[in-house]
Every structure is written in structure tokens, then in C-alpha cells.
Amino acid sequence: MPLTAIVTIVLRLFSLNWILQGFFWMSSAGADFVHSRTLSTEYWRLAPLVGLVVAGILLFLWSTLVARIVTPRPNPEIVLGELTQYDLYCFAFTFLGLYFVLSSVADTLNWLHYSFMVARDTNDGDPKRADALYQITRPLITLLAGGASVFLAPRFARKLTECQRKA
């Protein structure tokens, strides 16, 4: 199975995760709106959740294209059906990077939104504001590290393969 097919499968699984999370969170938010009767004035708060569902649908539809972009071009010397150590490392870095990016993007967006709301409603010295900024660091670092792993997967794989050949 080519690396792009494996990455496509992983992307589609994550896109389904985004879609299901988006619908779950929208149903939770809808229940809150019905309970507080503020849907008519606060419907804009559903926009990030709708965006998550739309992003999940788009990722599912474009997963093959994204997989071709993030995986290295096949080496003509490699026989199809045979995976090299380099291919396996590329898959591992790409898979882990996608996992970290896709599992942290929703938390990052959520904390960014919360941080902006807190910043708008509080003073500079308010501990609630500092806590909101502190809480965003974990998902943001995970998102950035995952992105680096995805985009640098071929380089990391090449270096690890060379290190193992030397050893």
C-alpha cells in the first residue's frame, strides 16, 4: 500500500473525528441556548463549531490531495509494494504529526476564542486573563510541533535513516 493511501486513511479518520466532535459540541451549545433562551442574540458563538464541521468535511473530500502534498514523491528505484526504512519513518512522522495537529486544532481554537473573550472583558492585571493565556500554551505547542513533524517528515526520516546506516 502506498504511503499516500495510508495518509489518506488517517486524514479521513481525523476528519470524521472533527465532524462528530463539531456536531456533539453544537448539540451541547444548542441545549445551552435553549436553556438560556439566548440563541437569537448569541448564534454567532456557533460559528467555530460550524467551521469545525465544514473543515472536517473539506478535509475528508481533499484528503487525497493533502496526502500527496505531505508525503514524499516515490523513488523510482523502490519496487511498488516494498516499504523501505525511509518510507516507514516518513509514515511515522507524518502520522504522528497529523495526529498531534488534528487532535489539538480544536482545543487551540477554543482556547484562542476564550482568551480573546477574557481579554475583552477583563483588565490587564486580572488573574483570569493570565490563566487563559497560560492554558492555550499546551494545545498551541502540540499544534506547532505536529505541524513541524508533518512538513519536515521527509527530512527527519532521511536523517534517521542516515544515522542508522552509520551505526
Summarize the topology:
Elements: H1 3-36, H2 39-42, H3 47-70, H4 85-121, H5 127-135, H6 137-151, H7 153-166
Summarize this structure briefly.
With about 170 residues, the protein is an all-alpha fold. It contains seven helices and no strands.
Strand content: under 5%
Number of strands: 0
Find the structural class using helix and strand composition. mainly alpha
Radius of gyration: 20 Å
How many strands, which pairing sense, and closed or not: the largest β-sheet?
none
Number of domains: 2
- Helix and strand succession? HHHHHHH
Based on Cα principal axes, name the global outline. flat
Count of alpha and pi helical runs: 7
Q: Which percent range fits the helix content? A: over 70%
- Ranges where pLDDT stays below 50 over 5 or more residues in a row are none
Distance between the termini: 29 Å
Mean pLDDT: 77
Features of the shown structure:
167 residues; mainly alpha; flat
Describe, in plain words, how this protein is organized in 3D:
The chain folds into 2 domains: 1-71; 79-167. It contains 7 helices and no strands. It has helices at residues 3-36, 39-42, 47-70, 85-121, 127-135, 137-151, 153-166. The mean pLDDT is 77. α1 (3-36) packs antiparallel against α3 (47-70), α4 packs antiparallel against α5 and α4 (85-121) packs antiparallel against α6.
